[in-house]
């Protein structure tokens, strides 16, 4: 895999950045602002690491976990009633889970390919 080329990681970065920036225009309740900033920021960081060092399976799975946490954060942070923040978390989290899942399979295949290539 070439560095800085996977669309899935770019999508995760954009979605994470949107979650962070959305805190400026959405209505907040509970811990919505802090959870959106934390999980959105972690998505951006994970996406950048995955772009810079493709094939790191642990980071791909970490990105999937952060995406899932962003999706469930309205229930964790008690802000399901704050429609703007809740819907932003659900939609950005779902998109991040989907694009990360799309990146995990090729990343795993690439990792196994490099492990099974015989040394010469």
Oligomer: single chain
CA-atom Rg in angstroms: 16 Å
Percent range of helical residues: over 70%
The DSSP helix count reads 4
Describe this structure in words.
The protein has 120 residues and is mostly helical. It has a domain at 1-6 and 16-86. 75% of the residues lie in helices and 0% in strands. The chain starts with 6 loop residues before the first helix and ends with a helix. The model has no long low-confidence stretch (mean pLDDT 90).
Give me a quick take on this structure:
The chain has helices at 7-21, 32-52, 57-76, 83-116.
Keywords for this structure?
120 residues, single chain, 4 helices, mainly alpha, elongated, 75% helix
SSE diagram, text form:
Blueprint: H1 7-21, H2 32-52, H3 57-76, H4 83-116
Helix pairs in contact: 1-2, 1-4, 2-3, 2-4, 3-4
